[in-house]
Design goal:
single chain, alpha+beta, nine-stranded mixed beta sheet, 9 strands
């Protein structure tokens, strides 16, 4: 088995027709190089990107087929994605996708983890010593204790704080050029711009909703959250250019997990 991309895929002409039918405004990029470069620029600028490419993943993790991607170097990205995109508790963790050839430079892992199932420590040279404010007082010990706990959760403990757990570990996905060349190209472009071969990779859905299965699903999720960019095939969507109605509140149709 070479990658978990065993689900449905959509031809470019079908994607175009489906997006036009729902009133999406998009640019049609010339090729995969243009797509990877455009997406890398937006990710490096701190934007969240919906990434709907190729065949859908099989299994329990998003692997770069139906993913939401973001810059892991930003300390506020974990809270932003949880609260404004996934609509869930702010402390929930996210996982890193990393170029296979760079995994040993960023994580204590010497091998493949293509299915995001292995947990490894962030490499010691990438760690930072977190500092915590002492917020507890006798007057409001419970509230201050909660604040202190959250401060520990959000402390910058590595160069990639958005994907680093409290204990310094991460659930790693290694991205391979042979099994997902486009995702590999995106990470390569992001590394060229930032020096970091890692992206936040989380499933393309909101809390309680199944992972998006069609271009229409992806567009609805894009319009109902604070995802700023959406790439479906070579169609590239910018939130500020859209004229379709917002789908805010659509996540209320799903039972919370």
């Amino acid at each position: 088995m070479r990658g978990g991309y065993l689900g449905p895929a959509y031809a470019q002409h079908d994607i175009d027709a489906r997006l036009n039918a729902v009133g999406a405004v998009f640019d049609r990029l010339a090729d995969d190089e243009a797509l990877a470069e455009t997406a890398a620029i937006d990710l490096a600028d701190g934007r969240a990107l919906g990434w709907f490419q190729g065949a859908m993943e099989f299994g329990p993790r998003a692997l770069g087929g139906r993913s939401i991607l973001a810059d892991p170097r930003r300390a506020d990205m974990q809270r932003t994605l949880n609260l404004k995109v996934k609509f869930r508790e702010s402390f929930r963790p996210f996982a890193p996708a990393v170029l296979r050839e760079d995994v040993g430079d960023w994580f204590e892992l010497d091998g493949d983890s293509p299915y995001m199932l292995l947990v490894a420590d962030v490499a010691a040279k990438r760690l930072r010593t977190p500092t915590y404010a002492d917020t507890q007082t006798d007057s409001n010990a419970t509230a201050d204790s909660v604040a202190a706990t959250l401060a520990r959760l959000y402390a910058e403990r590595s160069e990639i704080p958005a994907v680093t757990h409290v204990d310094g570990s991460a659930r790693v996905q290694t991205v391979h050029a042979d099994s997902n060349p486009l995702f590999h190209a995106l990470l390569t472009r992001f590394k060229a711009r930032t020096g970091c071969p890692v992206l936040v990779n989380t499933s393309f859905n909101v809390r309680g909703e199944p992972i998006v299965g069609s271009p229409e699903d992806a567009f609805r999720c894009f319009m109902g959250t604070d995802i700023e960019r959406l790439a479906i095939g070579r169609c590239y969507l910018r939130k500020e250019a859209q004229i379709a109605a917002s789908t805010r509140g659509y996540e209320g149709g799903f039972a919370l997990d």
